[in-house]
Amino acid sequence: MSRLAPLLLALLLTRAASAQDARFDVQAFRPSGAPQDLVGVGQSRPLSHLSVSGGAYLNFMLDPLVLVAAGTSSKSVSLVGNRLQLDVMASVGLYNWVEIGVDMPLVLFQGSDNLEAIGTEGFIQSFTPADLRLTAKAAIPGLRRSAEGNGFGGALTLGMSLPTGLQDAFASDGSVTWSPGLVVDYRFESGVLLALNTGFWLRPARQFADTLWGNSLTFGLGAEVPILRANGITAMGMLTGSTALEKLLTQPQALPTELLFGLRWYTGLGLTFTVGGGGGCGCSPTSPTLRLFTSIIWVPAKTREWEAIQRFKEPPEPPLPPPPPVDPDGDSVIGEGDRCPNAPGPVENGGCPDTDRDGDAVVDRLDPCPLLAAGPRGRNGCPLARIEGNKIVILDQVHFATDQDVILPESFPILEEVAQELLAHEEIQRVLVEAHTDARANDAYNFDLSRRRAVSVQNFLLDSGIAVERLCSAGFGRSRPLTANDSEANMALNRRVEFTIIPPVEGGALPPCPPDPAAGWQVPPTKKGAKRSAPPGSR
Q1: What residue spans define the domains of the chain?
Q2: DSSP string spanning 410-427?
Q3: 20-64+81-112+126-313 carries CATH number 3.40.50.2000
Q4: What is the pLDDT confidence band of residue 8, given thresholds at 50, 70 and 90?
Q5: How crowded is residue 444: how many other Cβ atoms within 10 Å of its Cβ?
Q6: 412 vs 460: CA distance, rounded Å
Q7: CATH class for the region spanning 384-520
């Protein structure tokens, strides 16, 4: 319930016979007549050009002006205990920039206690007109938003109230009042609207019961949220209030506010229905304990404003998907990334078809030997043996029995492929068979073991049909490691057999075999009939 907290009932009773305080308009509920305004909070968009709207708001408020006994919160006298008011409204839009409206308020019924306490015998007048209100709204350039548009909007507003009401019935200020203001709002793509209003209520100063009522700063914050947008049903919330710019020294600062909620239905017939309610803080005059309201606003069908509301009701269309990328060959490699735009191919090959120049079913981009067929015994696109530069490269090591020069059968296919390469390339005059060991055991032992293993490989090639004059052999022991002998894996790499093509000499003569590095090393003799022992861990 609203109260005049500083009023002292006893003081009023003693002064009632001698003087009567100046009364004022107690109604702070000033609805907006455009169909998309948020009841008591305006939105920035004016009505569409030459569109009109008309309708009525009906609102009931409880205890807007009550006296309480000094030092208590108990109601003593209801000056305006309840009021039922009808606002008949109409608006017109001009050029999509300006909106002009009129509001004729009528107090249909109000009640009170006997007003003897404030110097008037009897009760408040039940039916009375209130102050006629003229309104105007103009969109701010750069902030004019269409009905279905999104983003920020802004407008300047101006209201003028004419003293057509009855001041003794707390329905008029008795003179012309003004209400300049500013509206700023934002509409989201979802249809949610947030609006902020601020301005002034410029009215004559009235002293009533040791309280000064005059010019005040007004504010309003509202939101509209679509619930069933396609059906035109939305929910609203509004917080409105004001604070006096002038007050008496003994008068506490008052902040009459109201919080209201409502539901709205934009019909397809051009009728907009709104219903809701709420209440005030109960701490100041003009802020009722309870307020209920309902309204009906009509916009003629087929006008620009009717069409704008129907467009607002339509859910926003989802954005069009981006056009499919240009991919003439349909291989999912598009634009500049496709090196062959007219021939399909895998992404890994830049959109170009895979090729297999050696015909071994391993495509060139994955084939380490794209010009050499793997053959029936090759792996990963490479044959077991192939010529690269001055080497016959083999895919796997030649394996021997541990610490012996006996070739294991698993290495026969590799050596057979080496022999086939030599038979196929008669231009190769001589090949050096090299054998190497890891770093285990001493140099004499490793040189001897490597020499014998090289000879074993040489003999295998001779048995495969290679002429003796085309082969040389040498053992290098541990003198030429490929990598450090610091792990089993690295030592396995260093135990190897290589095939080096000896370059031809001038005049076409057969190139000589290089000297065997193992020739200067001697292995300690063993007893007759005993096997030569190898150092632990050597091969």
Answers
A1: 20-64+81-112+126-313, 349-374, 384-520
A2: GGHHHHHHHHHHHHH-TT
A3: no
A4: very low
A5: 15
A6: 9
A7: alpha beta
The pLDDT tens digits for 325-342 are 788 887 888 877 888 888
User: Which residues, 6+ apart, have CB-to-CB distance to 127 below 8 Å?
Assistant: 106, 107, 108, 109
Q: Is 512 exposed, middle or buried (0-12, 13-18, 19+ CB in 10 A)?
A: exposed
CA atoms within 13 A on the CB side of 416: 9
DSSP string, 163-180: S-S-GGGTS--SS-EEEE
Ranked by mean pLDDT, which of 17-31, 74-88, 277-291 comes out on top? 74-88
Q: What is the pLDDT of residue 521?
A: 52
Question: Helix %, strand %, coil % for the chain, to 5?
Answer: 15, 35, 50
Region 416-442 average pLDDT: 93
Say if CB 464 and CB 492 are below 8 A apart: no
Q: How does strand 431-436 pair with strand 471-475? A: parallel
CA dihedral 11, 16, 18, 22 (to 10 degrees): 100
Structure-model confidence comparison of residues 500 and 248, the more confident one: 500
Q: Is the pTM of this model over 0.85?
A: no
Q: Is 3 helix (H, G, I), strand (E, B) or coil?
A: coil
Measure the CA–CA gap between 383 and 378, rounded to whole angstroms: 4
CA distances from 256 to 6, 51, 201 (A): 15, 35, 13
d(CA 66, CA 203): 22
Q: Which two tokens stand for residue 483?
A: 């990598």
Tokens 């608006």 belong to which residue? 91
**Radius of gyration of the CA atoms of the chain, in A:** 52
- For 77, the token pair is 């006298």
C-alpha distances in Å from residue 410, one per residue of 45, 148, 405: 90, 82, 14
